[in-house]
Write a structure and sequence with these properties.
The chain is mostly helical. α1 packs antiparallel against α2 and α1 runs parallel beside α5. The relative contact order is 0.12. Helix content is 81%, strand content 0%. The mean pLDDT is 77.
Length: 175
């Protein structure tokens, strides 16, 4: 199993986890819809649909995301690429950071969608919207962190490698 297959599998597992979370929220919505007014729980349904859509998209496009996370040079021969990509620690770390970034993105997108629908409901009921902006700061920060981790996975791997070797005597430091 090469690193791209591991990345593909990790994306599919994350997509499945998010789909399961969506069904959990849908069942909670059904319970709350029976016990309280339907319009008050509309935000919960939007939340669940956001999770479900992101989980399905993550499952369907896991191959393309895996190729984005693990880039192979086109001028390498096929055997060299397979040997080089088997279990390189940096590649596994890069894939892990990318999957963590995807998790943060997937967790924050439904929150952002729910926040937009909450703002819409607050405006339609003439409620103050200012408190919703403070609540939405968490989702916005989580989304930005997720994008940063996903796009900067190689930089995080390089930082970890530098931190691991900080203060160690290497051949370059001795000369």
């Amino acid at each position: 199993m090469d690193i791209r297959e591991i990345a593909n599998l990790a994306c599919k597992i994350l997509g499945l986890y998010i789909i399961i979370q969506a069904f959990n929220i849908i069942f909670n919505f059904l319970y709350l819809a029976v016990t309280s007014s339907f319009q008050d729980q509309l935000v919960t349904l939007v939340f669940a649909i956001g999770y479900l859509i992101f989980g399905i998209l993550l499952w369907c496009f896991s191959g393309k995301l895996a190729s984005l996370m693990v880039k192979m040079k086109s001028n390498d021969s096929e055997q060299f690429r397979i040997d080089r990509q088997k279990m390189d620690v940096d590649c596994v770390q890069r894939v892990a950071f990318s999957v963590i970034g995807l998790f943060f993105i997937g967790d924050s997108l439904p929150k952002l969608i729910g926040m937009l629908s909450s703002i819409y409901l607050a405006i339609s009921h003439n409620n103050p919207v200012s408190t919703l902006f403070f609540i939405s700061a968490e989702a916005v920060a989580e989304f930005i962190i997720g994008i940063s981790i996903f796009l900067g996975a190689q930089g995080l791997v390089n930082l970890l490698n530098k931190l691991r070797s900080a203060g160690l005597d290497t051949d370059e430091n001795i000369k």
